[in-house]
Write a structure and sequence with these properties.
mainly beta, 7-stranded mixed sheet, 2 helices, 20 strands, 3% helix
């Protein structure tokens, strides 16, 4: 079990089951008059190096003797995995799965709001305290992974769970009242402002030349080949990045306008591959798991392309709602790629490949219930 880096005994497994919007006070959510606290960021998604701004909301049904009011900014990586132990040499028995875990703190800082409180007391009322924090310039994207590699994907790992998580936790420490605590997550996107990629390959086309005389179809086997121009294959995605649940549209172009030979296309396979890189603390290098998440034939009959033609085909693939985002951290790395494999007559079978960037969905910041208004804190 991993101990939470926010000071509780919650393990990483519990975090997978938590709502992404974090913990909150039911009293504040339902508008019941009771002392409670909530924290909200102005946006749900940020880039490394950007400024996070937000508000702490406090409902005080009676004066609160406040010793401290602070926001803890925390970024962390956590992984746990089950790895097959080596077989016992003495009896040749297969090794058993052993659990491992690791964690890393990306940043951990406090934002003190005590300067907004007069005489260390929060009076009766509903108050809004503003705060801000600048994220470090180099951070991995938020992600959440839970996978069980299948046979052939990994010879050692039986299960891998990981998260890159960014939280802002507010604490109101009181002398006479129960301490008030609330948390808000944000999404961090590692690589902003990308352009869509294009993968292309140029084929040197050859055509079968029959020998003089009355050659039959079977005689083509013995004939030689001469250059007959060029054909071009390309693939492109409709967007530079996708969120979980999005539909990926891939456009495939076959251009034979500069080719004098007929192109026979027999097969076109479309694959989506995920590469997971894990760095156990005991090893200096990342260990790699490669998973084929999608593999389908998109051509069910032979296609013929005549000289001078230009054809286009659109392929679609919907990402899972809980697809782990691409990231590259100190302990965990996740990347995706799309591959299209072609089988053509009289050609080497070409392959096209594009890197696929899955970005984390923005977190929905908390919204105050309708009719619940907050005031700026009183000044001295």
């Amino acid at each position: 079990m991993l101990r939470s880096l926010v000071g509780s005994e919650m393990c990483i497994r519990d975090r997978y089951q938590r709502r992404v919007r974090g913990c909150h006070s039911e009293a504040m959510e339902e508008g019941v008059p009771d002392s409670s606290i909530r924290i909200r960021t102005d946006a749900g998604s940020y880039h490394p190096g950007s400024q996070v701004t937000g508000t702490v909301y406090v409902i005080a049904d009676s004066p609160i003797a406040c010793q401290a009011l602070q926001v803890r900014a925390l970024g962390e990586e956590c992984i746990d995995w089950v790895e097959l132990e080596p077989a016992r040499q003495e009896d040749g028995a297969e090794g058993e799965g052993a659990e491992h875990e690791a964690s890393a703190v990306l940043f951990d800082e406090r934002i003190d709001l005590a300067g907004q409180i007069v005489d260390a007391r929060i009076p009766v009322g509903r108050w809004a305290y503003r705060w801000s924090y600048t994220l470090p310039g180099a951070l991995p994207s938020s992600t959440l992974l839970d996978t069980e590699p299948q046979p052939g994907e990994s010879d050692r790992f039986l299960r891998v769970r990981a998260c890159v998580r960014y939280t802002f936790t507010v604490s109101c420490i009181s002398e006479s009242n129960e301490d008030l605590v609330a948390e808000q997550q944000i999404s961090v996107e590692q690589q902003p402002d990308r352009e869509p990629e294009l993968a292309a390959v140029e084929l040197e086309s050859t055509g079968a030349m029959e020998r003089a005389g009355s050659a039959t179809l079977s005689d083509i086997f013995a004939c030689f080949f001469i250059p007959r121009g060029r054909a071009a294959l390309s693939m492109a995605m409709d967007k530079p990045a996708y969120m979980p649940g999005d539909v990926i549209q891939v456009t495939v172009d076959l251009d034979v306008t500069d080719c004098k030979a007929v192109i026979f296309l027999y097969h076109m396979k479309f694959k989506m591959i995920r590469t997971i890189r894990i760095k156990p603390p005991s090893t200096p290098e990342f260990r790699v798991i490669s998973q084929v998440l999608y593999d389908a034939e998109h051509l069910h009959a032979k296609r013929i392309f005549n000289p001078g033609e230009k054809k286009q085909k659109t392929l679609e693939l919907r990402l899972r709602e809980r697809q782990a985002a691409s990231t590259q951290g100190t302990l965990i790395g996740i990347s995706y790629r799309l591959e299209i494999h072609f089988e053509l007559a009289y050609h080497d079978n070409p392959e096209l490949c594009l890197n696929l960037d899955v970005v984390p969905a923005p977190v929905l910041p908390w919204e105050a219930p309708a009719g619940m208004n907050f005031n700026d804190p009183p000044s001295s």
